[in-house]
Amino acid sequence: MTKEDTRPVFINLLRINLPITGIVSILHRISGFILFFSFPFLVWLLDRSLGSESSYLSLLEDINSNLLIKVGFSIVFMLLVYHLLAGIKKLLGEFFGIGETLSSTKITSWSTIVIFFFILFLFIGVFWF
User: Fold this and answer.
1) d(CA 84, CA 120)
2) Which segments in the chain show pLDDT lower than 50?
3) Which fold would CATH assign to domain 20-128?
């Protein structure tokens, strides 16, 4: 006799109670995916900043006056910060064994979230006001 398979076929991520480590991991993948597709925007910003002194100054003026560019730059910057923090957490676990146990993994995951929000609020305070 075989047991009936009761595993769900369609997994709704909004209904599953993921641990904080799973949330950090999924957000790390999503941030990397979005950063990959934001590469042309970053190259455009770099091209405008390195063209000449006047193009750099006009880029700064555009960032300060154009809301779309400012929001785009802010989102890409914060995605980069989160991806970097989650990547450092992952590398610490892979190379140094930090976060091998369940309790230390929770601590490093919460630390990643707390540091990210600290940098986020610092960035908002400096860049937007």
Assistant:
1) 13
2) none
3) 3 helical TM bundles of succinate and fumarate reductases (1.20.1300)
